[in-house]
Amino acid sequence: MGNCFSDVAVGGTAVGGGGHGGGQNDAVELFLKSRDYHGVYSQIELSLSASSVGDPDMLSKSDPMAVLYMKGRDGKLEELGRTEVVLNSPNPKWINKVGVTYHFELVQTLVFHVYDVDTQLHGVDVKMLKLDDQQFLGEAVCALSETLANVGLFFHAYHLSEHVVVTKSNRLLTLDLMEQDEVTRTPRPRNFGKLTVHAEESINSKTFIEIIFRCSELENEDLFSKSDPILMISKISESGNSIPICKTEVINDNFNPTWKPVLLNAQQAGSKDSPLTIECFNFNTNGKHDFIGKVEKSLAVFEKIHSSGIGENLVLPAAGGHDYHNKVLKSQLFVEKYSECVQHTFLDYLAVGWELNFMVAVDFT
Q: Which pick of 62, 69, 96, 231 has the fewest CB atoms within 10 Å?
């Protein structure tokens, strides 16, 4: 990661995290990406429950587990996640939620499979279970947009089958669990119970923290000019590894720089008590950036630094890795602004009645 901001064109500009989805048409996707448009998307969490699930066990009730798939354009199923196993219940309410990214411009087909897990495998991690060894209890199919219709976001959902009931009063989508044809692998109309889906937008995906950092009295790392400081912001994983999440722009020839606002997604940064590392470098175009110093604090502490107006001294880590040998510098990091905000998503606009007009023109000349 040492040279992750090493070139002038890209390395000297601010960069934040977060992936974006594309479209179905390659030409359209290339056109949109060339204009820095990556589609409208939101992070969705699906909660699942079922009722009157089949009971293949002779001496006990079923131990159901649900598996969620996304059907690709080629018809292949991509597994998105699994619930936990609920013991001895024909009416399971699973706790584990399954996350999925909703793309407005795509028809995303969801396929749900419900299995009765063998009693001897109850202690095994669900991710390790071989589905072919479990008893199949039923299948349900719907479009992801249908699950969003139940929260009042779409009033004309695209239904893939007639076995769908949308109950807007309690915001639930109910699907028939169907038997799967062994030859064609398509659902047959025999009823195996009901599957209920509840979709909600991930709150963390909409919460952002805006921070403006400033430094004072930075060390001079250039021989014939002032330093060109840049900040790298990383989070510390549970294993202790440093994971970069964003960086500021370069400010040329400045010992007391104030950078443009940094916008951190709550999912990127983690909780307010999770440690973040702010590293200050002197930017060099050859990619060999000079390390100036760092501050390792949580978002909660950065909020207090902003409230107090008192800076935090940068430190140089000791060669042996012991914190008590770190060199404390006179250079300081200040937090000029700290604010938390909710950025409303595309789904929020739809929920309050925002309408889209679509016009198509074809020129055959």
A: 96
Query: What CA dihedral angle connects 214, 217, 218 and 220, to 10 degrees?
Result: 150
Residues 255, 292 contacting (CB under 8 angstroms): no
Over the stretch 16-48, which tens digit does the pLDDT of each residue have? 633 333 333 455 455 545 554 456 677 888 989
Closest of 150, 137, 136, 138 to residue 197, by C-alpha: 150
Q: Measure the CA dihedral 40/45/50/54, to 10°.
A: 80
CA distance 269 to 303: 14
Rounded Cα distance between 287 and 322, Å, is 28
pLDDT in tens, 102-157: 888 788 999 999 999 887 777 788 888 999 888 899 999 999 988 876 544 333 33
**pLDDT > 50? residue 186:** yes
What is the distance between the alpha carbons of residues 218 and 127, in angstroms, rounded to a whole number? 50
Does the pLDDT of residue 298 top 60, yes or no?
yes
- Determine if residue 152 is left, alpha or beta; phi over 0 gives left, psi from -120 to 50 gives alpha, anything else beta: left
The two tokens of residue 133 are 């060894």
Greatest C-alpha distance within the chain: 84
Q: Are 351 and 149 contacting, i.e. CB atoms less than 8 angstroms apart?
A: no
Q: What is the DSSP string of 147-212?
A: HHHTTTS-SS---SSS-EEEETTTTEEEEEEEEEPTTT--EEEEEEEEEEEEEEE-SGGGEEEEEE
Look up residue 260 and give its DSSP letter: P
Taking the C-alpha atoms of residue 215 and residue 190, their distance in angstroms, rounded to an integer, is 68
Show Cβ contacts of residue 219 under 8 Å, excluding neighbours closer than 6 positions.
227, 292, 293, 329, 331
- Which one has a higher pLDDT value, 325 or 65? 65
> Pairing between strand 98-103 and 41-51?
antiparallel
Are 225 and 274 a contacting pair, CB within 8 Å?
no
Put simply, whether the predicted model's pTM sits higher than 0.70 gets the answer no
Q: Compute and round to an integer the Cα radius of gyration of the chain.
A: 26
